[in-house]
Write the structure tokens for this entry.
Amino acid sequence: MAVGFLNWLLRLVILTGVLAAIAWGAWGLALDARFRPNPPSAQLPPPQDLAQSQAQDIHVLRLFLSYDESYSAETRARAEALLDVLKDRAGRMSRAEFELGVAEFVALSGNSQTRADINVRAQRFNRLPVRLALFADGVFVVQAQAGREDLLGRRLLRINDRPVADVLNQLMRYVSGSGIAARADAVRMLESPDLLAAAQLSGSSDGLSLTLSDAGAGEVTRWVDAVAPHADDGNVSGLSLLAGPPLSGWTLNPVLPQGVLWAHEPQLPVFSAPLVTGVYLRLTPQDTTTFVMALNALGEKLAKQKPPFIIVDLRFATGITEPARVFLARLPTLIAPGAPIISLQSGALRGDAMIGLAHLKQAAGSTYIAIGEPPSEGLIFYGEGNTMCLPNSRICVRYAVARHDLTRVCTNPLDCYWPDIFAPVAVDDLEPDIAASMGFADYLTGRDPLLERALDYLKAQGLLAP
């Protein structure tokens, strides 16, 4: 009889597992169908000329509006009007002009996740033999190809005698989203004479006249010839741009001092280090098994140590994964009761990365302190979706379908992103409690003003020795 009961129990367990797997699979299919729909397709004949090629791409791009949900009635009307203008110009636009037309079309949504793929674009058009980065005090050269090392460390003042701020303002119409994150995307466009010529911000696509300055040599003006894009150009941004390694044959400025925590082990998506009695943690979430394993190991380590404070660096997080969200939400339970949780955030924070920060703030409550810059996006935005590539130009654009509202607990499945219903979050804001930003001189010397403000706060609270 005992054997029969065990057999019955085993069958029940197996049946329960099968039903759970079926339910999970059905949930995934329903989620994908609603929030990650496959891109639209159109059966089109091979184009006979450039005019037909661009007209076909515009026809497919018009379908984009029936997928993306981030446009308001006003911005949708403006986007449709722009498509009409592009259609009238079909065959008379260069590749770069058409690229910018598409970028302006998606940027009209005002949503950072409704965007053209700037990484693919970086490999499609010529570039300068330098790489630029945006700091609190301007745009600076941080990498240079062999032969152009004399430009390293200089601040960019003017392009073809136009103030760089004016050029950036003109480029913002082609950039999705707003704030520092959008401005950093526009900085990448400054590196391409092809794109600046297409935007009518330069008279030549062969190169640019750059006026730069530094504290020692003063102002210099150099004509810089364009070069073919590097195979890795689409991957050189954020932490990899500033901390390296640089492109093959290029020079990174500067060779950062040892012990700069934000720049340490830039290839690791989870990096932690002891900081006096507490812990410093930098997260750049990824959808990989390695990331999940590293996160689990860190959680076990923190639960044993129970550190008296933790500093979480999310400055370079460009998105969030479910394991990262869960980890941030349970972080207060892994450290000493009532221990401060200090978040380091940059103005580049936007979109899905804000979800993780909101869950951390909500879970930490009064122990949460944010240091840095305001995020680049509001607390209501659209994400998820999918990518569609235009059939002829192969420009890839991403449409956003899921509405995220971090200001309230949403329970309406017709209005909410469904996983948000099961992991509710509501915060008043994600503004910093203590303002701080990094200037170029800080970067050169290895200073970290955000981390310094964090340590000053801990000292003021009596948690660190003065």
